[in-house]
Specification:
This protein has 13 helices and six strands. With 396 residues, it is α+β, with helices and mostly antiparallel strands. It folds into two domains: 233 residues, no CATH class; 93 residues, no CATH class. It has a six-stranded antiparallel beta sheet with strand order 1-2-3-4-5-6. A hairpin with a 4-residue loop joins strand 2 and strand 3. The two termini are 36 Å apart.
């Protein structure tokens, strides 16, 4: 080393720091959002077309204003309510397909290569997905817990569309419902808004299945104490003694009453929402029913309470897997077979998530497992694949 080289100041190595929320993140997040929004809009158009086409005349006939403007506004109001109901179902699939579309454009424009050459590894490119996943996850929870129940409640109240017919809460003039409870069987007309039974027959059974008695009354309503009901203007029949000495022709005594208190494991809140699927219930009602152990078929309420929380992570899981599969299979160039495989994988994940939730709803899987399995599995699989891709790139 010469004297002049010794006196020369040492060269500094320039270091480039990555900015997680810089221009790259904003640009890519907006591009992903545009593609996802376009796909979700397309899915909504298809779904609304299939929904409205067979019942357009019926929906139009429900308008109270029979003018052209009135009917048009009524149909548009119905479509708005249907969008609120459908958006939570279609958003996860739209996230996968929209992100997949965005990844295709990155490959075809060679932007992905430019990003890699700029020093960003596959894991570092996930910041835009995380930001978008946070926003879309919050919207997904809002859609399932607020928009859908609110839209269904309006259709029930205004008697609009299929939900207005299926979940009509008005007292039916001549429709009797059967309700099965532990050791009890009820046949009655249901006054949903008042949580009471009209023209009711109550059959009481022993643990062995023997009929112990029957109550026939004009009405029954909660007595204010859990498990206690007040029957009005009716008659009670008690089965005879089941001992061997009892006469087979003895039908047992029957007596009339004006008012009689009975123990009946029938929850008034559950009765008010009888027949409405748990997915359509307001969040407060769903939480209350999910916390009660004595309601019939509690699995559905507990599953959907968990689902509304767990699906915060579903949009991110769908986008993450779409990005990981695209980076792996079409990172350098697009080809027909890998693209079809990725598209079918997205649809398979979407259907699988619904199937797992249905299994929990019908009590075949624990509620927490059916709600959290698919979202967390997607995130774990996506991160595992991205980590593998990054390590494979570092060894080359």
């Amino acid at each position: 080393m010469t004297a002049s080289e010794a006196l020369r100041p040492p060269k500094r190595v320039r270091r480039f720091a990555l900015v997680p929320f810089g221009t790259f993140t904003r640009t890519l997040a907006l591009a992903h959002a545009r593609h996802i929004g376009t796909v979700v809009a397309a899915l909504l158009i298809v779904a609304l077309t299939l929904d409205l086409a067979p019942r357009a005349e019926w929906i139009a006939s429900q308008s109270q204003n029979r003018s052209a403007a009135g009917v048009t506004l009524h149909v548009l109001w119905y479509l708005g309510l249907r969008i609120c109901d459908l958006i939570g179902n279609l958003l996860p699939l739209g996230c996968f397909l929209g992100l997949f579309w965005s990844e295709i454009t990155l490959t075809q424009s060679r932007e992905r290569v430019i990003v890699w050459n700029g020093g960003r590894s596959p894991l570092q490119t996930l910041v835009p997905l995380a930001v978008l996943g946070l926003l879309l996850g919050a919207f997904q929870v809002t859609a399932l817990a607020v928009l859908r129940p609110g839209a269904v409640a309006i259709q029930i109240e205004q008697n609009i569309g299929e939900y207005g017919r299926r979940f009509d809460r008005r007292l039916p003039p001549a429709t009797w419902r059967w309700i099965t409870l532990p050791n009890h069987l009820i046949q009655a007309r249901i006054d949903y808004r008042a949580s009471r039974l009209v023209n009711v027959q109550l059959f009481e059974f022993s643990d062995a299945g023997r009929l112990n008695g029957r109550i026939e009354a004009a009405a029954a309503e909660p007595a204010g104490t859990p498990g206690r009901w007040r029957f009005a203007d009716g008659a009670r029949w008690d089965a005879p003694d089941a001992s061997p000495d009892a006469q087979q022709t003895d039908t047992g005594p029957a007596r009339r009453f004006d008012t009689e208190m009975e123990n009946l494991p029938l929850d008034p809140l559950w009765l008010a929402n009888f027949g409405i699927d748990p997915r359509y219930l307001p969040q407060a009602t769903l939480a209350a029913l999910a916390a009660r152990a004595d309601v019939p078929e509690p699995a559905g309420y507990r599953t959907w309470w968990q689902v509304r929380v767990a699906q915060f992570f579903l949009p991110f899981g769908m986008m993450l897997l779409a990005s990981a599969l695209a980076t792996w299979l079409i990172g350098q160039s697009t080809a027909f077979k890998p693209m079809i495989l990725i598209g079918l994988s997205g649809y398979f994940l979407y259907v699988s998530n619904n199937v797992v939730v249905w299994l929990g709803e019908y009590g075949q899987l624990p509620a927490a497992l059916s709600a959290w399995l698919m979202p967390l599995a997607m995130i774990a699989a996506g991160l595992t694949l991205m980590t593998w891709l990054e390590r494979r790139g570092q060894t080359r």
